Amino acid sequence: MGAKLKMVGLLTMGAVAGALTTIQFTAEARNSYGPLPLEEMQQLAAVFGMIKTDYVEPVDEKKLITDAISGMVAGLDPHSQYFDKKSYKEFREGTSGRFVGVGIEIGMEDGLVKIVSPIEGSPAFRAGLKSGDLITKIDDTAVKGLTMDEAIKRMRGEPNTKVVLTIFRKNENRSFPATITREEIHVQSVKAKMIEPGYGWIRITQFQDRTVDDFARKLDELFKQNPQMKGLVLDLRNDPGGLLESAVAVAATFLPANAVVVSTNGQIPESKATFRATPDDYLRRGGSDPLKKLPAALKSVPMVVLVNEGSASASEIVAGALQDQKRATLMGAQTFGKGSVQTVRPLSAETALKITTARYYTPSGRSIQAKGIVPDVWLDETAEGNVFAALRTREADLDKHLANGPEAKEDADREKAREEARQKLEEQLAKDKNSVKPLPEFGSTDDFQLTQALNQLQGKPVMVSKNMSERKADASTVH
Asked: Which regions are flagged for Basic and acidic residues bias (predicted)?
């Protein structure tokens, strides 16, 4: 398998990890437990005792118990998880949009870490690192062979500690070391710009604590640039999800007051809820309403929502609400299909349990679990067709995923499509290693799908997917 195909695999892996980002809602831990299965508990205690006394070498008792808890939770579904001290800290960093590191958005290219963009004002930005730079070493460790997650962990650390990145700058054909002091980074999960006079683009990369404030500020800036907005593209491609309150607020920005955004239903009473386009449902931590001063035109401006296989959980809630309420045209590809809700219950100051407590439903009552949302207009990734789409993993591909009706034929069809796409890529790479190019950056002038979204808003012809016969089969499984 060629180096660039390996890159595709790594990017796919990163998208799957991102899709495990949870949707949260406030819930109190329940203190009432039913009777425990005595015989099985005795077996668990017996196994613990045997390992402690008979194993070939001494074992850490606390680690044994932690591993037992982790295994018990991991057996439920792909999204339930036991958080130990380290993973709980990482989870909270992910939802807060704050972490300690060097401050770069990254991808993978030919097995190396590629800097997509340095975060403005970050240590990497101040050190002069640029978009397109390749990181070949992190301290004394070669990047070749590391996964993206492994590379990220090596670049993160404690505040005021140093890390040496070896940079290869292709356009200057030179390598050089950059010594960077780590500090707390504040991630901007929202990007926006005017793509043409009267037409705005706003992208959400993840639904975090500060997403709604940033979203409202960016929208306000767009309308100040052009008060007579003719159309808006909301870009949710590769958005793995995040906090439920943020998703409800983003949908509420464009919906009539009190319109249904999403409902949830599960076994416990607090999992049965309906969330509407009202501050009472998205200001769950109190505070002022960041949407209050936004222009009234946002409720009626023509909209396109861009989605793809990497759009998951909270981004699917927004897309589903705007589609069901006939507020926007969805364009792109069928979404990831994460239709379950996770609640995080603290177990101590440093540990917690993230557990699936409900399914969620779009305003029309659709469960998109393991199905995803079908766009109104199917688009290929590029003008030439799809390159990596079939290789991307979706909810239905994850082991132990919650089912949503019969799936055997769908699973077989999806695996067949993935294998055919993999073979096609390998054949292309065998003929010409440069024949498969990475997809352009979202929001750039080369972004084919964004161009089609703009055409849709302007009433121009749209280049729809070249595989509509396959798409119709997919659509029939959702409705």
From this structure: 399-435, 468-479
Residue range 190-476, CATH number: 3.90.226.10
338 labelled catalytic: yes
Cβ proximity of 248 and 215 under 8 Å: no
Quote the tokens at residue 397.
């591909």
Mean per-residue pLDDT, 218-246: 94
Let me know if 324 is a catalytic residue: yes
The Cα-based distances of 180 to 122, 183, 199, 326, 419 in angstroms read 10, 9, 39, 49, 42
CA pair distance 78, 400, nearest whole angstrom: 6
For the chain, give every residue range classified as CATH 2.30.42.10. Answer: 98-186
Closest CA to 122 of 107, 136, 103: 103
Per residue in 270-284, pLDDT tens? 899 999 999 999 996
Intervals of CATH 3.90.226.10 along the chain: 190-476
Q: What are the structure tokens assigned to 279, written together? A: 């501050």
Catalytic one among 117, 271, 313, 315? 313
| Strand pairing class (260-266; 273-276) | antiparallel
| Cα distance between residue 1 and residue 7, in whole Å | 10
Residues in contact with 362: Cβ distance below 8 Å, sequence separation at least 6, in sequence order: 262, 317, 320, 321, 323, 324, 368, 373
- Please indicate whether residue 313 is annotated as part of the active site: yes
**For residues 449 and 237, is the Cβ–Cβ distance under 8 A?**
yes
The single residue of 324, 380, 447, 474 carrying the catalytic annotation is 324
Per annotation, catalytic residue among 114, 137, 338, 371: 338
Which of the four pLDDT bands, split at 50, 70 and 90, describes residue 17? very low
Reported pTM:
0.80
Fold of the domain built from segment(s) 98-186: Pdz3 Domain (2.30.42)
Q: What residues contact residue 169 under an 8 Å CB cut-off, 6+ apart?
A: 130, 132, 133, 134, 175, 176
What is the DSSP annotation of 33-64?
Answer: -----HHHHHHHHHHHHHHHHHSSS---HHHH
